[in-house]
Write a structure and sequence with these properties.
The protein has one domain (32-307): Rossmann fold (3-Layer(aba) Sandwich). Helices cover 45% and strands 16% of the residues. The protein has helices spanning 3-27, 29-44, 85-91, 118-131, 144-155, 190-200, 209-235, 265-274, 290-293, 295-307, and strands at 46-53, 56-63, 70-74, 96-100, 137-142, 160-166, 252-257, 279-283. An eight-stranded mixed sheet has the order 1-2-4-3-5-6-7-8, sandwiched between helices. Helix 8 links the parallel strand 7 and strand 8. Helix 1 (3-27) crosses helix 2, helix 3 packs across helix 10 and helix 4 crosses helix 5.
Length: 308
């Protein structure tokens, strides 16, 4: 191949790559999201795995030294195991970190014969953790994940060395509404989806248009299913823990965003008032997802608490 052809290829290569990037950006936003996810996985040094519990497949991330102290983090309602990936970047250096996908969410099957109430999630996680060899561990969760973590600690207190509640659901405060209340207006449009996202963040991150469209379609597709899970939680056991949380004697960190419009800080104050000697931290200019808005700061708070 002569020099002129090499120069032509060299000059066209950036154009070709740019066109490929545009095609992915506009036509296949899920591939773009996949690449971002893989970057987070690589930075967090975790591996995606799967385990079968009672015939039900549960996917999860795991990373860190096998003989390190164990830390389990559970995501919230409508979220997935990806939620804690950014924060895990700093946690896997010291801990063996397990991030399970809550049955019913993420990539897990939509089994209409199952109940997805909190007590049922505790039961299946207890079997999962035992199967993976997690006998003693620190346990944390965000939103519904915090609710599950608190309920788990109440049922299996000897297994949980420390409890971490990040904007956790599970109790009711006098001035708050019904937890997991059914949506008044089913999600039908991108406007509806953006309205919901703005409630989750203090400052909504910039989302590329094609990615936003893809996420909106996914949210609309899952809206009816999420209503089913919400119904299961409201009708199931451990829906409200107000009468039980005072029985938690496990050292507990309660971490909250001061601008949470999904699970109000008043809920966190109920936990703090009922759990003896719990540590309360209010994060400024933060919404419902501290692990996403401030992953490093959230990790620092968790590490500081666990080391003490």
């Amino acid at each position: 191949m002569n020099k002129r052809k090499w120069l032509w290829i060299g000059g066209m290569l950036p154009v070709i790559l740019g066109l490929v990037g545009l095609i992915i950006y506009f036509a296949f936003p899920q591939l773009l999201l996949g690449m971002v996810r893989m970057g987070y996985e690589r930075n967090a040094r975790v591996t995606a795995k799967k385990v079968i519990v009672d015939g039900y497949p549960i996917s999860y991330y795991e990373g860190g030294k096998a003989d390190a102290p164990k830390l389990i983090l559970i995501h919230g309602f409508g979220d997935s195991k990806i939620s804690f990936l950014q924060t895990a970047k700093w946690l896997t250096k010291t801990y063996r970190v397990l991030i399970p996908e809550v049955p019913g969410f993420g990539t897990s099957p939509h089994d209409t014969k199952r109940s997805y109430d909190i007590a049922s999630q505790v039961t299946i996680f207890h079997k999962m953790f035992g199967k993976l060899g997690y006998k003693k561990f620190a346990l944390g969760g965000n939103s519904m994940g915090g609710h599950i973590a608190a309920a788990y600690t109440l049922r299996h207190p000897k297994e949980v060395s420390k409890l971490i509640l990040l904007n956790a659901a599970g109790v009711k405060a006098p001035q708050t509404g019904i937890p997991y209340a059914p949506g008044r207006h089913p999600m039908k449009s991108q406007k509806d989806f953006l309205t919901f996202l703005k409630k989750c963040f203090y400052k909504l991150p910039s989302i590329p248009g094609p990615v936003l469209s893809f996420l909106t379609k996914q949210a609309i597709k899952n809206a009816k299913w999420n209503q089913k899970i919400g119904d299961d939680i409201r009708k199931g056991r451990d829906y409200l823990l107000n009468a039980k949380v005072a029985n938690i004697t496990t050292p507990t960190l309660i971490l909250w965003g001061d601008h949470d419009r999904i699970v109000a800080p008043a809920i966190g104050k109920v936990y703090h008032a009922q759990i003896k000697d719990s540590k309360w931290i209010m994060m400024k200019k933060c919404g419902h997802l501290p692990q996403n808005e401030y992953p490093h700061k959230t990790a620092k708070h968790i590490l500081s608490f666990l080391k003490k």
